Amino acid sequence: MRNQFEELGLPATQHDPDCAMVIYRNSRTVEELEAEFAGTEDPDFEMDRRLSAGPARVPAVRRERLRAVVYVHDGVIARVRTVDKTGAWEDLPGLHSLAPVSAPLTAARIDKTFPGLGIHPRDKREPRWGTWREYIDLGTEG
């Protein structure tokens, strides 16, 4: 519930909106992840389900609201996956957790599941300088 910024004139909300995490990866990072997971059955799935919030794990309050992950490789959206809100997260040693992500969504499925998101595979999406990840509010429905 948002009520801590009343002095800014922001209205309180009944619930924090669901969100999508956007992860920006450069070609070097993608190559390192592909090499790390090369022997697995589905390397893209293995590298996509391993998430962090930068210098820490994704906090519990974010996990509760996280409904999608958007993967951007060198400024182009590679995949969008849903996050199972009832699925279990597995914390790994260090900064990463394994998230309960789905198979990649098609453009039609993205539009149906997240109307108004407007993000599809092969779209261009450049990060702000120095940004490795960001969160996008999906609204209060979900």
Give a nutshell description of this structure:
By secondary structure, the chain is α+β, with helices and mostly antiparallel strands. It has four helices and seven strands; from the N terminus they run E-H-H-E-H-E-E-E-E-H-E.
Tell the overall outline: globular
Could you spell the SSE succession in H and E letters? EHHEHEEEEHE
The count of helical stretches stands at 4
| Average pLDDT reading | 87
- Name the helicity range: 10-25%
Q: List the strand order in the largest sheet.
A: 4-3-1-7
How many separate domains?
1
Word description of this protein:
The protein has 142 residues and is of the alpha+beta class. It has one domain (14-135). It is 21% helix and 25% strand. It has 4 helices and 7 strands, in the order βααβαββββαβ. It has helices at 27-36, 43-49, 60-65, 107-113; strands spanning 18-25, 50-51, 66-73, 76-82, 90-91, 97-98, 133-139. It has a 4-stranded mixed beta sheet with strand order 4-3-1-7. Strands 2-6-5 form a 3-stranded antiparallel beta sheet. A hairpin with a 5-residue loop joins β5 (90-91) and β6 (97-98). The longest helix is centred in the N-terminal third of the chain and has 10 residues, at 27-36. The radius of gyration is 16 Å and the shape is globular. The mean pLDDT is 87.
